[in-house]
Write a structure and sequence with these properties.
By secondary structure, the protein is an alpha/beta fold. It is built from 49 helices and 18 strands. The termini are far apart.
Length: 1168
């Protein structure tokens, strides 16, 4: 095979058809030899023959076939033209089918030969004037075409044929390399217009969209013939012949001038490139001010490292190649697979690129991207690299980037490991501040719409690895990237044999088994994942080694009719798993039937860390649910949850034995045992490609049914009560809920569509809310409330339940107005809807005391307190406590909640003793029932400490209580949890009260950036923190800092809230200190006026009385304001009394140093 001369004239051009054979079967006519007037043009006709059978046979050179043939074409054509002394003779290529891909690759190869030692091969590129593509599959061939009998004489398509599928990486690579050259050549694309017959079916081998893509400035035309017939003309009247002849005529006439200019331009271009390279080389060897061949330049030749030019740290970085000794403290990586082999060269190169990790550096992290085919070992490579280099890093962290939600969940776990709660940004902030070396792996970042910059810390002493199928992700790399395809052929063969025959002697002689393994490895594209699965199938004797290849090809052919295949890698991976799964599905034993159903369920969860406890926890309630039409036998048949667990584990063992899933112990996956759920001991995981196959092998109807079944299972393992003991378990449900919910929203655009769906997404919303994902929870809860209100009515108990969950989410989002609106609706509904007739005969009847109504009152108590409407909160709280105590008793958790909320309201209106009495009872009972570390106990402990602080008594106990709550919240909830930050604010108030002003400032300044990042600049938590910080600044006499903070607060806080009055009061206080009594007076007048208009505060509240007191002193200082003083005394009688004390409130603790200084100035009648 090679070049064949069909016609000898050699004056003007070489016509080089790249084809297998173009002879007409019936007449024997080869048109380029028998019909084309080559003598008229003085054209030589060269035919390049290649062995298509060798290329398409199983085990052929699939990975390198096109490249090898392209190199051979260039070398043979150049050699022939060199011998003929015709290297500058123009060339026109005429290509049919695959031959067009071969020519495109050959031209890009020729163009790449730039070095003077191989420049002779560049002559093919320089001399090519035009190309005729005859049904060339530029964009690939369809699966339907590939399934036709002509391609499948071996029982199924080979790896080479699979590489011609639409959208394949091999085709994309050829297109990318040829694209920069397209404008240089004349190009004509032809396509077939008559389908080819294959028995009873007909199909186009290459459809128009692939044969004639929408390239600009390119001729294209259809030929009224079949794929084979379009190049087998028998006469001048054959379809398409005249168009082809005219095209060749134009190309030949234009050839001499075009090629002459191209040779000149290209030679000049290479000359300039080489000159620039030479200058760069000289510059790099002899930079200005560097050591030259005669000695050391510069004034001081005593040292090469002038300390004025290079710092000590920089010198260390250049001179010290050894890594700083490091102790690995954090290793958040699941164990590497034992089957991984190879990639040692890339591992060494990556280690060199990253350099030696050192302590003390903080700079932009270095990032390397690893991209390539699914199943090529990207993740396994990173696992191996993490394990082998663990000792070099203080911390190694693994982030699942298969979706943005999963990435956020992974970062939440990282934040928890950092002791900062589950705030997503806290983990990145932790890494960015670390001076110890760390490694961060962003795995499965395949979504091209995902912005990975948001997951890479801005600074820090770190290295980042990204694995992805998306080649465009290379933009994130700072030190280069690796493209993974198949393994090294020898390593792939060894992997297959070693896994298929474990324990056997290493194979030295390449026997029959080696040859079978070579064919199988080649056909699987040397992909590690596919090789592993093939080996396990052979090892379990489901298929012997010598029969595996034919079964694989047959399975491929059957798979071509399915929509799930998108690339040759997909086919390779899917076929290797379809073979053993078909065997599982064909068996009738219970564990095998359960295994099939279990895989269908796992396909709709997230692919990593699926706890087997999901199934046992959900079994009881799932059995009575009505939504799912599919009832997995392993869940509904056993009589106990233990029986369910046993059936599930037996089914999982079947899948594990066939290498479809992996099973690990929870303890080995999370070494700090964050699950804390003894009922769940095993985790199931799937490779992402297998996870996708397991889902997409089902038809649309089956996918919908199994999706609904999976959603129901997940929902039924979540209780409405959200027991504290199951919180860690529910946290790890998040990625599975997110995976399932995203698919539900696609399958049901108007979700929910029925009451069962309503219940499912309500449960999902509860889990989101419990884990602080309030906005995601709100979107689901709004849908549930709307649907149930429409179909059940607003008075139905399930509607009220959904409304209560929504109101709670509004509360946590500090959307207090919406929260109060929903809770008021619930209260009214519960007023009209009473459980029994006796609930109507209470006295007075307009004050019911049934439990749902009292719970609604308690919810309002808490929200009205947060809104600053303390009087209404007090009224609601008293009624809630009274009703729940009568109905449930003092020990019920609902009663304790109401007592706590009422106590907090008492505290904030200054009734400290009543508050303390209630808190004392609640703390004792919650400690006894729930323990000292329960969130509700900690809330009570914190509030009791603030009660003592407000009373200014037992301040040591106040500090002890709040400090203890803070310490435990840091450990359990994390340093950046909202309640932890709340405790920091409260402890700062205690510090201010005991005179530790600077400590208060320090702790508040430390959390300001955290609150800003986690809650936002205008969040109520940020406003509270800034308010407390401004007060601490004033106590430290840092007036300018306090004023700048309060100016912002006065702008940001809404005027209809109590916090606005507090901010305005603080700013007025500073204006007094600065001597601006007029400005301070205006602020005080505004506060009193606004309170009178809105009723947001009672006129006898601590804040209003403090404002009146400040205004009173301003009047006295100014003098001549007797009428105003009298009016103020009439309105606030306590002002004129000696030694009178205004009520104290936790909302307004006196500013003692400020009071001493400013009060003296005011009383002396002087202004500042």
């Amino acid at each position: 095979m090679g070049l064949l001369e069909l016609a000898t004239p050699r004056d003007s051009a070489d016509l080089s058809p790249a084809h297998k054979t173009w002879a007409n079967e019936s007449s024997g006519v080869t048109w380029l030899r028998d019909l084309f007037p080559y003598r008229r043009y003085g054209a030589r006709v060269l035919s390049y023959e290649y062995d298509i059978d060798t290329l398409t046979a199983p085990g052929g050179p699939a990975a390198t076939g096109i490249y090898d043939e392209a190199v051979k074409l260039v070398n043979e054509l150049q050699a022939d033209r060199y011998i003929q002394d015709a290297e500058r003779r123009p060339i026109v290529f005429i290509c049919h089918g695959f031959g067009g891909l071969l020519v495109k690759r050959a031209l890009s190869f020729s163009h790449s030969r730039r070095d003077v030692r191989v420049e002779h091969l560049r002559s093919i590129f320089r001399s090519t004037v035009g190309i005729l593509f005859m049904s060339t599959p530029h964009n690939g061939i369809t699966k339907q075409s590939l399934a036709l009998a002509e391609f499948n004489q071996y029982g199924g398509p080979s790896q080479f044929l699979l590489s011609l599928l639409e959208g394949s990486e091999a085709l994309q690579e050829i297109t990318d390399q040829f694209a920069p050259l397209m404008k240089i050549f004349f190009i004509y694309n032809f396509w077939e217009q008559i389908a080819t017959s294959f028995g009873k079916s007909r199909a186009f081998i290459v459809d128009r969209t692939s044969a004639a893509p929408s390239w600009s400035d390119v001729d294209q035309c259809g030929i009224n013939s079949t794929h084979s017939g379009m190049v087998k003309y028998t006469s001048g009247s054959s379809p398409g012949f005249r168009i082809v002849l005219a095209t060749l005529d134009r190309y030949i006439r234009a050839a001499d001038s075009a090629i002459r200019k191209r040779w000149q331009r290209d030679a000049e271009l290479l000359r300039k490139e080489r000159l620039a390279e030479f200058e760069d080389l000289i510059e790099s060897q002899h930079p200005a001010g560097s050591v030259n061949s005669f000695g050391v330049s510069g004034s001081d030749s005593a040292t090469l490292l002038d300390s004025s030019a290079i710092s000590e740290a920089e010198a260390d970085e250049f001179l010290d190649d050894e890594p700083s000794p490091s102790v690995n403290v954090h290793y958040l990586v699941h164990r590497r697979s034992e089957y991984f082999v190879g990639r040692l060269r890339q591992s060494d190169e990556l280690r060199t690129k990253f350099g030696a990790p050192k302590r003390g550096r903080r700079r932009k992290p270095e990032t390397c991207v690893i991209y390539g085919l699914p199943g090529s070992g990207k993740t396994q490579f990173c696992l191996r690299f993490s394990e082998d280099n663990r000792h070099r890093y203080w911390g190694v962290f693994w982030i699942d980037c298969s979706s943005e939600a999963n990435a956020n969940a992974s970062f939440a776990l990282l934040s928890e490991r950092a002791g900062k709660g589950q705030e997503i940004g806290a983990g990145q902030e932790w890494l960015s501040r670390s001076t110890d070396p760390w490694l961060l792996v962003l795995d499965n970042a395949n979504d091209p719409e995902m912005d990975l910059h948001s997951f890479i810390p801005a600074t820090g002493n770190g290295h980042v690895l990204i694995t992805t199928r998306n080649p465009n992700a290379q933009i994130y790399s700072t030190i280069g990237s690796f493209q993974f395809r198949g393994m090294d052929p020898e390593e792939a063969i060894l992997l297959l044999l070693n896994l298929a025959y474990p324990g056997s002697e290493p194979r030295v002689n390449k026997d029959a088994s080696w040859n079978y393994a070579r064919l199988i490895a080649s056909e699987l594209g040397y992909l590690a994942l596919a090789l592993k699965q093939a080996a396990y199938t052979i090892r379990r004797q489901l298929l012997p080694l010598e029969r595996y290849l034919r079964s694989l090809l047959g399975c491929r052919k059957a798979l071509l009719s399915r929509p799930i295949l998108e690339s040759s890698a997909d086919v390779n991976i899917i076929a290797t798993y379809e073979l053993p799964f078909t065997g599982i599905a064909s068996k009738s034993s219970i564990e095998y039937r359960d295994a099939v159903e279990l895989l269908h369920v796992l396909a709709f969860m997230h692919f990593v860390s699926i706890p087997e406890g999901i199934f046992s926890r959900s079994s009881d309630s799932f059995k009575v649910s009505k939504w799912s039409s599919i009832r997995p036998a392993a869940i509904v048949e056993p009589r106990s949850s233990q029986g369910v667990g046993d059936r599930i584990l037996a089914a999982a063992k079947v899948l594990y034995d066939h290498s479809i899933i992996s099973i690990s112990d929870i303890q080995s996956t999370a070494r700090d045992n964050v699950w804390r759920t003894p009922s769940s001991t095993k985790l199931f995981s799937l490779h992402p490609a297998i996870h996708q196959w397991a889902r997409e092998r089902l038809n649309d109807s089956e996918q919908r049914q199994w999706l609904e079944c999976t959603a129901s299972i997940l929902a039924h393992c979540v209780s409405h009560n959200l027991e504290t003991s199951g919180r860690a378990f529910r946290q790890h449900l998040l990625p599975h809920i997110e995976s399932c919910l995203s698919l539900l929203e696609i399958a049901h655009p108007k979700l929910p569509e029925n009451l069962e769906q309503c219940s499912v997404i309500e449960k999902f919303g509860l889990v989101y809310a419990e884990n602080g994902l309030w906005k995601r929870a709100r979107s689901l809860q709004l849908k549930v409330v709307e649907f149930r209100t429409k179909y059940l009515g607003k008075r139905h108990v399930e509607t009220i339940q959904a409304q209560r969950g929504l109101a709670n989410t509004y509360w946590n989002l500090f959307e207090i107005a919406k929260c109060l609106e929903v809770q008021h609706q619930i209260l009214i509904t519960n007023w009209w809807t009473r459980p029994a007739w006796r609930d109507w005969v209470t006295w007075p009847p307009w004050k019911p005391v049934h439990i749902p109504y009292c719970i609604a009152l308690d919810d309002l108590t808490r929200s009205l307190w947060l809104a600053g409407r303390r009087e209404l909160s007090l009224r609601a709280g008293k009624r809630a406590v009274d009703g729940l105590t009568r109905k449930l008793g003092l020990d019920d958790p609902l009663t304790l909640n109401a007592m706590f909320n009422l106590a907090r309201t008492y505290l904030h209106i200054g009734e400290h003793e009543k508050s303390y009495d209630l808190l004392e009872v609640v703390l004792e009972k919650r400690t006894r029932f729930f323990g000292t570390e329960h969130p509700d106990t900690l809330m009570t402990m914190n509030e009791m400490g603030m009660n003592l602080c407000a009373q200014r008594v037992r301040l040591d106990d106040a500090e002890r209580l709040v400090s203890a709550a803070l310490r435990i919240r840091k450990r359990i909830l994390g340093e950046e949890h909202a309640y932890t930050l709340w405790s920091v604010n409260d402890l700062s108030k205690v510090y201010c009260e005991v005179g530790r002003y600077q400590e208060a400032v320090d702790m508040l300044e430390e959390i300001v950036p955290i609150v800003r990042r986690t809650l936002g600049e205008t969040h109520a938590g940020m406003l509270m923190t800034k308010s407390n910080l401004s007060r601490a600044y004033m106590l430290c006499e840092r007036w300018r800092d306090a004023r700048s903070l309060l100016e912002l607060l006065c702008e940001q806080v809404p005027p209809e809230t109590a916090d606005w009055a507090h901010a305005q009061y603080g700013y007025a206080f500073i204006l007094v200190h600065d001597g601006d009594l007029g400005g301070a007076e205006a602020r005080c007048d505004a506060i009193i006026e606004k309170v009178g208009e809105t009723g947001v505060l009672a006129m006898d509240s601590a804040r209003v009385l403090a404002t009146a007191e400040l205004l009173y002193r301003i009047y006295r200082t100014q003098g001549g304001r007797e009428a105003d003083l009298a009016g103020l005394e009439e309105r606030f009688p306590h002002l004129g009394r000696e030694q009178a004390e205004r009520p104290r409130s936790i909302d307004l603790i006196p500013l003692k140093p400020v009071g001493r200084r400013t009060t003296r100035d005011l009383d002396d009648g002087s202004s500042n």
